Amino acid sequence: MLFSNITIIDENFNVRPNMYVGVRGKEIAFIGDSKPSCDFGEIYDGANKLLMSAFYNCHAHTPMTLLRGYGENLGLQDWLETRIFPFENQLDGSAVYLGTMLGLAESVRFGIVSTTDMYNFCDDMVRAYTEAGLKCNIGRAILSFTDEELRETERFRECESLFKNYHNSADERIKIDMSLHAEYTSNPKTVRQLAEYTKEIGARVHVHVSETKFEHEECKKRHGLTPAAYLAEHGLLDSPTTAAHCVHLEDDDILIFKEKGVTVASCPISNLKLASGTCNVPKLKANGVNVAIGTDGCASNNSLNFIEEMKFFSLLHKGIFAEPAASSPRDTLYSATRAGALSQGRFNCGLLKEGFAADLIALDLSKPNMNPAHNLVNNVVYSACGGDIIMTMCDGKILYENGEYKTIDIEKIVFEAAKATENILKKLSQ
User: Fold this and answer.
1) Where does 61-141 have alpha helices with state H?
2) What DSSP letter does each residue of 313-332 carry, written as one string?
3) What does DSSP assign to residue 357?
4) Which among 96, 365, 369, 374 is least buried, having the fewest CB atoms inside 10 angstroms?
């Protein structure tokens, strides 16, 4: 495909009008200001459109679309114990598949091509991602409240099977991470043994860290260490790690993350909704920590609208820290694209650059909210709406365009997901 006469946000996050971008197979093969001599097949008319990198959602629980709006106006622990855990106890693989597909339809509608996901019934999640044509880093959440050997637990066997069966499957779109749910839902033995196994197989790590003040302080009481220091001491951070939330980090935690190369997945809307606090993104970035953006699950967001997430991400730090320059639109776009791709180990993704994966989105520039365009990078972060995205491409394949889902039967999924949710609610009411 050749995108013709289109405005782009290039690999340096500069706006360049009237460009040509050629996609061949899975890759961006040409970028130039004049039409290439070689044939790229179908021509996409770029008039009044913007082409840029798609988004990488670096912390989510995608099947939780089924819990959208189910637990409101509650703090994290109360929310988990009274609403989320009881509902999740009724889930089966079929419901998780449907919830995942519903979430993937929403993701592709809002320009997300890859998600760092943590949940259970992960075989069914892999099936959904494979069918939808999207990318993911999936981890089966490890929890442990006993002194049992990790390798003897059912959860570990699921993790092991997932990695052996699916890592780098679907033409390398599917990656399997090792996911420790959190410090407070595990024990030192579990953390050490998971760290050892992760290093043994060369996997990546996905873990919740210091999401609430209570979690952070209780860890210090139990272990004499912050969650970040505790995970580092037991070796988990020796593998490439994405740490979600990180709302209550201390200065030494930030130094640990810098030393270990940890990526922080900041989830501003979820943290605001659950009154957990605010991740200090400016301090993390000032100390050289890679910061990506996550939506968290739809039970605590309540959407996967990534443009909305970017706006919160950028504005929140300005308000909380009383510093208007705390987060620039350019920095925000980097976190939403390249930083997220790096956190997932997708090193040829997240930039509109020759030789990189053709993970691209197109936005409609004719909309009133996108005009005038003194600076289109500013407009994308502060003025755009999720509905301005008119095309989403993953690995050179268009998955969504002008309201049409190319790989998802949206009416069927919406209907069946609603039916699955209704069945669960009936069980809970009995």
Assistant:
1) 76-79, 85-88, 93-109, 122-132
2) HHHHHHHHTT-TTSS-HHHH
3) B
4) 374
Amino acid at 54: A
Q: Token pair of 331, please?
A: 């920095």
Phi then psi for residue 383, to 5 deg, are -115, -25
Cβ atoms of 116 and 294 closer than 8 Å: yes
**Chain-centroid distance, C-alpha 52:** 18
The answer to pTM > 0.85 is: yes
Torsion, Cα 317 318 322 326, to 10 degrees, reads: 80
The pLDDT > 90 percentage for the chain reads: 94
* For residue 265, pLDDT beyond 90: yes
Residues 6+ apart with CB under 8 A from 16: 7, 8, 9, 10, 33
Query: Cα separation of 140 and 156, whole Å?
Result: 8
What is the four-CA torsion angle of 400, 403, 405, 406, rounded to 10 degrees? -70
For residue 406, count other CB atoms closer than 10 A to its CB: 14
> 27-32 and 15-24: which strand pairing?
antiparallel
How is residue 306 written in tokens?
Answer: 């990534």
